From TrEMBL:
This is Putative MFS transporter. It comes from the Bacteria. It is found in: Cell membrane. GO terms for molecular function: transmembrane transporter activity. PANTHER family: COMD, MAJOR FACILITATOR SUPERFAMILY. The chain crosses the membrane at residues 20-41, 53-71, 83-105, 111-127, 139-162, 168-189, 201-222, 228-248, 269-290, 310-328, 340-359, 365-386, 398-423, 435-456. The keyword Transmembrane applies. Keywords: Membrane, Transmembrane, Transmembrane helix, Transport. It is a multi-pass membrane protein. Residues 14-463 form the Major facilitator superfamily (MFS) profile domain. It holds the Pfam family MFS_1. One of its GO terms (cellular component) is plasma membrane.
Amino acid sequence: MTTESISGNQPRPVATIASLTLLIAAVAALESIIVPALPLIQRDFGVTADVGALASVALTLSTVLVTPMAGRIADVYGARPTLLAITTIVVLGGSVSALATIFPLFVLGQFLQGFGLGLLPVSFVVLRRTLSSDRLKTATGLLGTVVVAGGALGVVLAGPVAENVSRSAMYAVPTAFVLLGAIAFAVSTPRDHMSNVGGRLDWPGAAGLALGLLTLTAWLASASSNGWGAPTSMLLLLASAAVFTIWARYQSRTTEPMVDLTMMRHRSMWSAVVVGVVFGFTYGAVVYLLPQQLAVPEESGFGRGASTSAIGFVLCVGYGAAVIASVISGKLAQRVGTKAIAVAGVAFLGLSGAVGVFATTMWQIVVVLILAGTGVAAASTAVFVISADSAPADRVGVTTAIVTIARSLGSAVGTQIAAGIIASATSSGGLPQHSAFATAFGVAAIVAIVGLVVAVTMPKPASTDVQWSSSSSSKSATPRFQ
């Protein structure tokens, strides 16, 4: 890799982290609006539920396609220009969503907004190149905090803003804060005189990964609507497996691959990916099940008959727990190590599923939320620190992107399986049975146990000086910020 040097202004870590905090929180709020606002959007544009779902699908598709490429582009061309380019696209998407007068234009806005999650791996590149290993742990915990807090803010405020002002304002306000965060980052973070970090972008590898992820996402969508064993679902699953097989063979033979698969031979790396899938699965299932249970009428004996607004405020308990846990776990990792934090996080998630099996009262549901929020925050902090701190300096972005995708896909599968269990057991009145909820929570807990075994046996993260037997060029142990 080309030796990096900075002439002129030096990085200002505090200002950089502060601007990143504002930017990531605003993007998280913008991305989460669609969750509570989808029924309102369907009414505004006069579309049915199945057509309206295209807005959510567009957001998911662009996220899956962009995230790994954003990480690798940041590795090759530098984090600063990559982050500002992505932010520009997100601001454009938010503006289109706010001003759209027809539904297809709104869907386009959502697709452009989906680039926002690509900022997460790019931000880890920023942190890795700006901070020492110990400070990286605290900063990663902070970043996890603002993602959760921003998402919670979007969920809670979307409805009141839309109802009391307008749908346009619901998107315009967070978009304005995204723009403000981008300006703050550009001002506080010096421009490097180097044009790039070194290496090249593997476009065929990027296209292959995108195609594999696209078919995998299509498989999940088909499984949700047609069933897991439907011919279309099975065909898409086989197609995804074939694409990934061909892509892996190509990656192993090219000199500068999109994803250096030799990294995944190291136990700390593949363990982080497995733990990411597991906590994504468990948390995705739990946060799907709890709103469904809260909405079930009280006469069922286990539901609360809660309104949409009430459910949103109850969920904030879990968000609050996650915010606190993110801050604490980042600092605690410096004392006890990231492996211990990963073990504790997955254990808390497993407990949330176990308690959920028996949860029928409000206080029990609150306990499940606190356990789940604490667990996902701790586990997220741990796996991102492990992947960012252990990866070669020019592979931080793509490595953390893989963990991000693993978490997202785990969450999607967990949600779909939980939904399938609930749909398969309904009473004569059309309401889901408590036994179905208990089974789904139990499945989430069992999956968490698998992740707990992986986390316990995970080796301690290697130092940033670790040498990887890969085709990549030699890495600087403490590279300067790009």
